[in-house]
Structure formats: C-alpha cells, structure tokens
Amino acid sequence: MNPTCNVVVLISGNGSNLQALIDSQEPGGPVRIRAVISNRADAYGLQRAQAAGIETRIIDHKAFANREAFDQALIEIIDSQAPQLVVLAGFMRILTQAFVEHYAGRLLNIHPSLLPAYKGLDTHRRVLTAGEAEHGCSVHFVTAELDGGPVAVQAVIPVQAGEDIDNLVRRVHAEEHRIYPLAVRWFAEGRLRLGTRGAMLDGAPLPTNGHVLRNQVLRN
After folding, report:
1. Does residue 3 carry a pLDDT above 90?
2. Which residues bind (6R)-10-formyltetrahydrofolate (predicted)?
3. Most buried by CB count within 10 Å: which residue of 77, 108, 128, 139?
4. 177 is catalytic
C-alpha cells in the first residue's frame, strides 16, 4: 500500500477545482492536501480550504521586486510542507524555469483545451470561433513551455450546435472537476509518472494527448 501523498495546491481565485480535489479526499485515502497557497488575499478558494480545515498561506507577488524573487519565496513556503506533489488550480502566474525545474515531475496543471491545441487564454471563445467539433480539458505535467508539458489525461466533449460560450464553459468545468482529482489520485497511487519520454500510466508511455476520456465512466 502506498503512503499518503502530501499535496500543496496553488490558487489565485474562486478555487472550484480546489473544491473538487477537497471533495475527492477520503479518510485514509492516498491524497492529503497539506496546504493551499494563494498570491491573492481575496481568493475565495482560501475560504474553501479553511472550511475544510486545510492550512492556508498568502504570498503577494506585488511585494517582490521581480518574478524570480517571488518564485524563490514561494518555493520556500511550499517546501516547508514537504509535498510529493504541487497542483496548480487557477494559479494565475507564469512560473520561472527555476521553479518548474525545482518541481520537475511533481507539478501538475489543468488547462481548458485539448492540448496541444489552444494554449494560452480565452480557449472557449477561440474554440467556438474556429467552429471546432470538440473541446475539453487537459491535465498535464508542467514544464518551462507555457501549457506545453506532457499531457496525462484529457476529457473530450462535443461542441453542441449553436452552443453559447457560457454553456460550453460550464460543461468544460464539469469535466475539469472530474479529471483533476483522477489525475492527482493516479499520481498519489504511483500510477502516473513523468518519464524521460513523457507521461506514463501504469508503467506504459501515454500518447501525446494522454489518457483520453470520451463519454465513458472514469477508470478508477
């Protein structure tokens, strides 16, 4: 039986993915959220963490002279919790290469597109404008390339005819809240790892778009 995987979650805002991770924790289960850290004191996700009895910390990026100084201070706070995994859940900061390398292979992010397509911001509107038939979200290991790290798992949904952006956002968010806890649990159980050639699940290399879920029951 694998020991408990200590997780630190970084947020900047509402924290709906954080809530999904909190809700997925089980007594005696493989995942334990040790702390939630935000660069914004008004992030609602801090209240979510406090309600769940999770330690919270605030580190204001505006108090630092540059990105490097902020990231170094953030590393010190994270490492004080001795986490095996660091999870980005709406953390609206571009991380330095030094930060990413420090947590290489144990830093996950979720992005609202089917990577490698639609990196960056405003993905839902861009997908609708392009007339794409499918959309979704991706959990990936973080590297120095923005939204460019190896994908672990994707959820794919069809774009409905005439769908507006609010409905599409809602549907993608629902998928995010399903696959992020799944990926974190896989990591905690030792099933998901970053290998020399990319993401690996149960010892086997994953394709570039990861483990893809399409209108199916999630695999435990």
Report:
1. no
2. 67, 92-95, 109
3. 139
4. no
